[in-house]
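Hi V.,

Quick status before I head out on leave. The structure for the redesign project is tokenized and pasted below; the design run finished overnight.
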């Protein structure tokens, strides 16, 4: 299975927005990521996201043809095994968008290493091996 891990984009503070939705900068970074995925023909079958507004919006921007699945098991402190248990059987391309430390724990559980996630960045894991990680800055330079 091809697994893509995306930390949601930058978001507004609670003072700016009680729901902490994506900021303009966060929307821009995730839109660039969506363009990168299209340019590289990466089309997840499923995008699994947390119920938080910023994660939902990130998933919606990245959606294209994917089926969106909202799950409490994408929350920040969910153990990696619990999160991985919600991936549909026989899925070939799955994108998880959520929060730290959950995404870091998934990477560590699968690869035995830690990814220094940035909001709006993406990691690609195949056969329990980290193939690459791209920061938002690198993504913007490529699109």
């Amino acid at each position: 299975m091809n697994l893509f891990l995306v930390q949601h984009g930058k978001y507004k503070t609670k003072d700016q927005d009680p729901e902490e939705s994506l900021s303009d900068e966060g929307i821009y970074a995730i839109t660039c990521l969506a363009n990168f995925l299209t340019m590289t023909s990466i089309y997840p079958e499923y995008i699994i996201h947390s119920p938080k507004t910023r994660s939902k919006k990130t998933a919606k921007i990245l959606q294209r043809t994917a089926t969106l699945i909202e799950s409490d098991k994408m929350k920040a402190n969910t153990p990696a095994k619990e999160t991985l248990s919600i991936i549909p059987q026989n899925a070939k391309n799955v994108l998880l968008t959520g929060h730290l430390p959950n995404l870091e724990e998934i990477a560590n559980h699968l690869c035995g290493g830690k990814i220094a996630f940035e909001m709006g960045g993406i990691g690609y894991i195949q056969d329990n091996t980290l193939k690459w990680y791209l920061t938002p800055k690198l993504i913007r330079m490529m699109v």
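Above is the designed sequence. The CA atoms of residues 46 and 67 lie 5 Å apart.

G. will cover questions while I'm gone.

Best,
W.
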